[in-house]
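Structure in, sequence out. Go:
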């Protein structure tokens, strides 16, 4: 064996090659393979040797399982790629039955824990089981973790280091406070300032953030430790700290604070009046306003004055107006929830069996029970069961909803301008414009919707109120249409609202378009329009994204 210093140098060089592989020239690639050959010569000994082929493989199986369980998808991908490189010339006889390596074992364990059926037959076109399972694990994490969130006049980001950043209008009355300073409690809450560039939130910098969510009034952030932080307007109890903000107690809600009753959380969602979280055991928690009220005028005359459930999923005492701390939705205690979305007064939840449940206020058929009846408790959407497809994710806007199948098919229902069909649908229907596109990610908020395909193409539709990207045709685009300004860009994450949109590419670059004040593109000059009509990268910002293995 070579000296320790020589081996350390070889390992460092190989690691640098691995990180820079996407940008390698042919000459650099050849050099990288030469380094790999040298490593193989040191680590792969002749079959007659009493030593093991690799120090890693000398570890007990139990210890190796512990190590692999601590690695994220990208680290597992690098390990699998390195092993293939080191052993690429070694003959591998096909053993009956097929032997499963430790990386594949860990990936299968993760898939099983999330209710994903890995299957026994390698999918057509997949190069290996490890590659197939890595891609599935990445897509599942992509749907669970969101580095972007947009509110009415603000944006939230998670950068590559896990820092929380915000920009836009800091009016606490809309839950948009950047939370990097304390507002005078006696100040006029209608007067705020504009934060022109993504700015770190110092009060939470000792935690690495993996996901963010926001609404018109408040925001949530999820840490790597499964902790949930909330800030913004607490007048509806949606902050989850056990109290309701009265008379805009800005000093109490402007800074992110941990929701102490929540732990081991994997998914978060923020609605206008409620919040939701799903923990690692698949338990769904909700909190916030218990009921909502609409006048006939607010309902455009489609219904009389209405008061009903807000989508908490359980019944509170008659006198209770708010659920002030997270409470489990017991009606789903026999199911393992894997995703949740909050609309305007209604909630959608997906279980590991692929079923979708809805509950809360039904407007324009948003609950998909083929009626306008509201539901306090979760009801399974039978129309999706009849499709024979397994659903893996949901999204919700003001009065419409989306559901994504494991095969990448997108279903939409609810209000005609926003559901992707251009007509009202009270039961889920396949979005025709995206059939065959294989959708990997979708998002909805307010009156807007979007979807990302496996090619990294971004489609947008809905009533965009003249502030979002207009496709050059006006303020409404009732069926999905690709964003031409992102041609050649591989989109992997997106957040959309009624006023602006953020899209992150595979390198973590954020492309922003819509209302300028919320985009983080810097202070506007006198010659700048209030609208940025085409996707524009935010300088110096790189967000946390999950690249393809």
């Amino acid at each position: 064996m070579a000296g320790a210093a020589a081996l350390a140098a070889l390992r460092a060089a190989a690691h640098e090659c691995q990180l820079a592989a996407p940008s390698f020239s042919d000459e650099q690639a050849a050099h990288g393979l030469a380094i790999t050959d040298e490593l193989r010569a040191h680590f792969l000994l002749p079959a007659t040797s009493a030593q093991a082929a690799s120090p890693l493989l000398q570890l007990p199986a139990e210890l190796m399982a512990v190590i692999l369980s601590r690695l994220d998808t990208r680290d597992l991908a690098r390990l699998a790629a390195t092993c293939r490189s080191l052993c690429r010339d070694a003959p591998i006889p096909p053993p009956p039955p097929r032997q499963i390596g430790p990386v594949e074992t860990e990936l299968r364990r993760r898939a099983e824990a999330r209710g994903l059926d890995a299957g026994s037959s390698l999918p057509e076109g997949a190069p290996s089981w490890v590659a197939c399972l890595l891609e599935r694990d990445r897509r599942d994490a992509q749907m669970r973790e969101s580095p972007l969130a947009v509110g009415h006049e603000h944006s939230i980001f998670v950068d590559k280091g896990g820092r929380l950043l915000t920009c836009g209008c800091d009016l606490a009355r809309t839950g948009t406070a950047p939370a990097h300073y304390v507002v005078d409690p006696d100040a006029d809450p209608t007067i705020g300032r504009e934060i022109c560039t993504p700015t770190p939130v110092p009060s939470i910098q000792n935690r690495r953030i993996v996901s963010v969510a926001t609404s018109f009034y408040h925001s949530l952030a999820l840490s790597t430790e499964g902790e949930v932080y909330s800030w913004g307007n607490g007048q509806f109890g949606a902050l989850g700290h056990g109290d309701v903000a009265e008379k805009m107690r800005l000093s109490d809600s402007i800074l992110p604070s941990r929701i102490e009753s929540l732990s081991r959380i994997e998914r978060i969602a923020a609605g206008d009046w409620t919040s939701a979280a799903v923990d690692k055991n698949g338990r769904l928690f909700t909190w916030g306003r218990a009921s909502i009220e609409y006048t006939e005028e607010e309902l455009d005359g489609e219904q009389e004055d209405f008061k009903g459930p807000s989508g908490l999923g359980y019944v509170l005492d008659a006198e209770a107006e708010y659920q002030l701390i997270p409470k489990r939705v017991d009606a789903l205690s026999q199911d393992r929830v894997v995703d949740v979305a909050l609309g305007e007064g209604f909630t959608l939840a997906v279980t590991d069996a692929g079923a979708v449940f809805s509950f809360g206020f039904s407007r324009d058929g948003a609950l998909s029970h083929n009626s306008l009846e509201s539901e306090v408790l979760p009801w399974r959407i039978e129309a999706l069961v009849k499709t024979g497809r397994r659903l893996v994710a949901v999204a919700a806007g003001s009065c419409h909803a989306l559901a994504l199948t494991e095969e990448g098919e997108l279903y939409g229902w609810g209000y005609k301008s926003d559901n992707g069909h251009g007509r009202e649908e009270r039961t889920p229907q396949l979005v025709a414009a995206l059939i065959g596109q294989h959708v990997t990610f979708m998002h909805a908020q307010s009156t807007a919707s979007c979807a990302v395909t496996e090619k990294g193409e971004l489609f947008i539709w809905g009533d965009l109120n003249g502030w979002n990207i207009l496709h050059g045709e006006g303020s409404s685009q009732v069926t999905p249409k690709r964003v031409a300004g992102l041609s050649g860009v591989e989109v992997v994450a997106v957040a959309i609202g009624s006023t602006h949109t953020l899209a992150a590419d595979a390198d973590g670059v954020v492309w922003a378009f819509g209302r300028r004040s919320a985009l983080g593109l810097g202070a506007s000059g006198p010659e700048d329009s209030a609208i940025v009509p085409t996707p524009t990268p935010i300088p110096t910002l790189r967000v946390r994204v999950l690249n393809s293995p």
